[in-house]
Structures are given as structure tokens and as C-alpha cells.
């Protein structure tokens, strides 16, 4: 998110990556993928309207490569929908912004390490 002066307003770096994501509320369980992620939240596409301020259980499977093998590093936290946007010409498709409202420091560090790793890769290939 950019301000008019071009400066980033977010508190933490964010990377555009598709990461498996499960979100659960009182009346639903959805599996999707992130559009982007930071250690404070994620942006994802879902096929159900979820009202802003809905509390969620969130499970993220961060893919970590080790010795030519990819393993999933599980992150579990609580989140809240802070924004829901209709997607034009797709009647049952919504973008949601999720704020991680209760996440352990250990899980926050896992996400931050993942984001920083991929940001450094992007700067090398740019």
C-alpha cells in the first residue's frame, strides 16, 4: 500500500506468494491461497462473502525448501477480516484482507523469515 508520497505505510514487509491457507469461522471452513502475506496479515481470494470484523482461526502452510525437499511449516493463529471486496464480473468471488490478531512471536518470525527470504530472491532477479 503506497501513500501519495510513495512511502510504504505497512509495518512489515509483504511478499506476493500463493501459500495454502485455511480459514475457519463459526459457520464455515474455507481452503484457499494467499495473494500476499506479511507477519501481520494476509490477502486472499475466497468464494464466500465474509463480513468485516469476522473472527477467524487461520492455518498457513509455509513451504520451506530443505535439501532438495519441500516441507510445510505450519503456522496457526487467530485473525479478523478487516476488508472484503467484491471482484468485478465474478459474482461469488471476494478478496479478503486478514489481520493476524493473535499470533505467537515464534509463528510471526516464521512468516517474517519466509517473506524476507523471498524478497531477497526478488531483488536478486530484478
Plain-language structure description:
Helix content is 17%, strand content 53%. The chain is of the alpha+beta class. It has a single domain (20-125), classed as predicted glycosyltransferase like domains (Thrombin, subunit H), CATH 2.40.10.220. The longest helix has 21 residues, at 105-125. The radius of gyration is 15 Å and the shape is globular.
In short:
With 126 residues, the protein is α+β, with helices and mostly antiparallel strands.
Topology:
Layout: E1 20-25, E2 28-38, E3 41-46, E4 55-66, E5 69-87, E6 90-102, H1 105-125
Name its key features.
single chain, 126 residues, alpha+beta, Thrombin, subunit H, 1 helix, 6 strands, 17% helix, globular, disordered N terminus
Structural class: alpha+beta
CATH level-4 homologous superfamily? predicted glycosyltransferase like domains
C-alpha termini separation: 20 Å
Give the assembly state of these chains: single chain
Low-confidence stretches: 1-8
What is the percent of helical residues? Answer: 10-25%
Helical segment count: 1
Number of strands: 6
Beta-sheet strand percentage?
Answer: over 45%
CATH fold name, please?
Thrombin, subunit H
Number of domains: 1
H and E order:
EEEEEEH
Q: What is the level 1 CATH name?
A: Mainly Beta
Q: Residue-averaged pLDDT, rounded?
A: 87
Tertiary shape: globular
